């Protein structure tokens, strides 16, 4: 049996602007094994965010396929895409993307609500997750009442809410100072080890790359390991 959880198979992505084609990804192939922690590096504009969006079903490739557990992703409609993401993928973004009017506990519970999971159960899991990212005493704080590092911890807890098979993180330390950055890297490493997460992190940060088990480089729209 294959241990590949998520795979890009000769994926191409072009954007069409003003009648001109911009080929961002060219026959990109990448396999993520269950439980792997992989860093994705490449110059600004090399297509890291684009690739994460395709892998997470936020966008569709121009050619080639994304496979999840061997099956091509079926994300033809927005509802199918939302169902795939909600059930199988956790996202962490550079700018946290928390909802400003919800407190930390409510933000973490949101993915479970989208899937209409029972409220009591999801609240209990959200509390456990916030506890495990070190925020048991910040659960009732809104994002504006949290530091950047704390907001990213909430975002990581939220990404884990629905027990996703894969976590995709796009420059998760990009907005943080050096000390906070290493706390977030340590947290990702601990979550990876404790929860057997499959983790793909796009990053400019050498420290993140060193923490990963494998580094994949994107250059001129192609992958080189
Ligand atoms: N919606 C879009 N329409 C047109 N071009 C786009 C679109 N999104 C991204 N691009 C272009 O695709 C290329 C890759 O962008 P992408 O955001 O994936 O790069 P990146 O590697 O994540 O860069 P960074 O390190 O700066 O985050 C860039 O040249 C960008 O201008
Ligand atoms: Mg990017």
What would you note in describing this structure?
With 225 residues, this protein is α/β, with parallel strands linked by helices. The protein is built from seven helices and ten strands. It has helices at residues 48-55, 78-88, 104-114, 119-132, 148-160, 178-195, 206-211, and strands at residues 4-17, 20-33, 37-42, 63-68, 71-72, 89-93, 166-170, 198-202, 214-219, 222-224. Strands 6-7-8-3-9-10 form a six-stranded mixed β-sheet. Strands 2-1-4-5 form a four-stranded antiparallel β-sheet, covered by helices on one side. Strand 4 (63-68) and strand 5 form a beta hairpin. Helix 4 (119-132) packs across helix 5 (148-160). The protein is globular, with a radius of gyration of 17 Å. The structure holds adenosine-5'-triphosphate and magnesium ion. The site of magnesium ion has 3 residues, from helix 1.
